[in-house]
Inverse folding.
């Protein structure tokens, strides 16, 4: 990304232009650039926007905004977590901003969370500039590993109840997390009856990629489902989640557990509940027809 596009004072604009979403752009007005450097792996930018609060962009693609991050974090975390009867050990691949970790740790059954993030700069930048996301990095249940998630999984067979992949798009450092070799490693890293959740792109823009991903997942998991949520700052305003289970009897479309009333005040959920969980698996006709045949 050209740094000159974001280096101006108030009134400058950030425009998301990427080969991942050709022929379109989403723009936000910048009030102040807070951080902008290139890490070992990617361009890392944090800025204060006029209408979406603080924004994290990697290689020119928006990852989170303060205004709508909860829609993505809550769904990618709680769809699998509430579908498992007792998720004691959880692995997060990616998620260096800390949002998925924040949500996973709300589940009392969790004893250990291992997080494998390839880019240490994303973690440190989030701690400094995105406290609404990174507040759980000091939690005693967390074991943070800086490294490649693909390589990490090779050495941890049959270890996790739930694995959540919170990746950027299938270019750059996250490219290996969208192929069949990765899905095989996920299956091997699960304990019996374990579950997987993957960032699943947009049915409006990446339907062929989603079809390929779900077809590859079905080679390693007996149950594979696709869900979605609305996130205004993501391309097309929609993002998907691929849910996989090693258990034939898993029914993702209804949560296995529910939030008890005393927890509601402390969990601070703004998007997810049991009704939204069920509704997330209802797809537009064009999407359901394509993905049911993948």
């Amino acid at each position: 990304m050209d740094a000159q596009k974001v280096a101006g004072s108030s009134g400058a604009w950030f425009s998301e232009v990427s080969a991942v979403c050709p022929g379109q752009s989403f723009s936000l007005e910048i009030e102040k650039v807070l951080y902008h450097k290139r890490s070992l792996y990617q361009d890392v930018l944090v800025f204060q926007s006029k209408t979406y609060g603080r924004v994290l962009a990697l290689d020119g693609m928006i990852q989170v905004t303060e205004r709508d991050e909860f829609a993505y974090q809550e769904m990618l975390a709680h769809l699998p977590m509430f579908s498992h009867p007792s998720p004691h050990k959880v692995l997060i691949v990616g998620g260096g901003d800390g949002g998925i970790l924040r949500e996973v740790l709300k589940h009392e059954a969790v004893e250990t969370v291992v997080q494998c993030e390839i880019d240490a700069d994303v973690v440190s930048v989030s701690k400094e500039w995105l406290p609404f996301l990174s507040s759980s990095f000091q939690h005693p249940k967390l074991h943070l590993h800086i490294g490649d998630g693909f390589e990490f999984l090779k050495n941890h067979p049959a270890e996790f109840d739930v694995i959540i992949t919170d990746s950027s798009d299938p270019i750059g450092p996250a490219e290996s997390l969208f192929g069949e070799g990765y899905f095989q490693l996920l299956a091997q890293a699960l304990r019996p009856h374990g579950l997987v959740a993957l960032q699943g792109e947009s049915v409006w823009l990446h339907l062929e990629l989603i079809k390929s991903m779900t077809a590859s997942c079905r080679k390693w998991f007996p149950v594979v489902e696709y869900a979605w949520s609305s996130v205004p700052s993501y391309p097309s305003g929609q993002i998907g989640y691929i849910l996989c289970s090693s258990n034939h009897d898993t029914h993702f479309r209804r949560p296995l557990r529910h939030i008890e009333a005393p927890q509601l005040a402390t969990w601070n959920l703004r998007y997810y509940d049991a009704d939204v969980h069920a509704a997330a698996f209802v797809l537009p006709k064009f999407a359901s027809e394509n993905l049911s045949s993948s």
About this structure: The mean pLDDT is 91. Residues 29 and 50 are 6 Å apart (CA to CA). The chain is about 30% helix and 30% strand.
